[in-house]
Design the sequence.
């Protein structure tokens, strides 16, 4: 019949939910269950370096992509940072096959940053006139895992010894939503 937004009610027959890491929490409040969790993804931008490849490269150790400024965006290949929270336990069975495959590549953290989608204190229900958890924090900006990025710098240098260890000029992180089969949901 429609949706209620900050701008008021919008009549419609269909809705596309593009809530990223917030999707599971949002949909659960509407009675739709989606087994979704989020992992922290850390990325670094290197200073300018000679070009070794203009495209994207990824393996289990690291990934890199050439930047327009002459540097590379670098990130862990198969390493994950995962915050434990209520959804991690709720969806444990659905994610068990993934966990068995990626257990040694996953760094478990005891809690998400405050007010994040699967943080222990995040509200799981609210009324239409209340500020929702995803309206409270619109952009998830976790701190990057600098230890993981240091390992990526080392792996980059080992794979491309002629270039040496890249210097980072910036680092950032984000929360990437995932479901058990790692296929996006619309």
Sequence:
């Amino acid at each position: 019949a429609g949706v209620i937004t900050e701008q008021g009610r919008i009549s419609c027959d269909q809705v596309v939910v593009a809530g990223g890491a917030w999707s599971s929490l949002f949909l659960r409040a509407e009675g739709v269950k989606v087994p979704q969790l989020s992992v922290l993804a850390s990325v670094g931008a290197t200073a300018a370096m000679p070009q070794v490849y203009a495209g994207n490269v990824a393996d289990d150790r690291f990934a890199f992509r050439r930047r327009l400024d002459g540097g590379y965006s670098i990130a862990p290949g198969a390493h994950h940072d995962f915050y434990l929270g209520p959804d991690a336990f709720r969806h444990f069975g659905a994610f068990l096959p993934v966990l068995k495959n990626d257990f040694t590549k996953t760094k478990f953290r005891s809690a998400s940053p405050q007010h994040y989608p699967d943080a222990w204190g995040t509200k799981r229900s609210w009324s239409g006139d209340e500020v929702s958890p995803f309206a409270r924090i619109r952009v998830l900006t976790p701190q990057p895992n600098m230890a993981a990025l240091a390992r990526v710098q080392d792996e980059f240098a080992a794979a491309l010894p002629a270039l040496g260890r890249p210097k980072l000029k910036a680092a950032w992180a984000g929360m990437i939503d995932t479901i058990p089969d790692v296929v996006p949901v619309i």
Observations:
- The longest helix spans residues 146-159.
- The mean pLDDT is 89.
- The two ends are 19 Å apart (CA to CA).
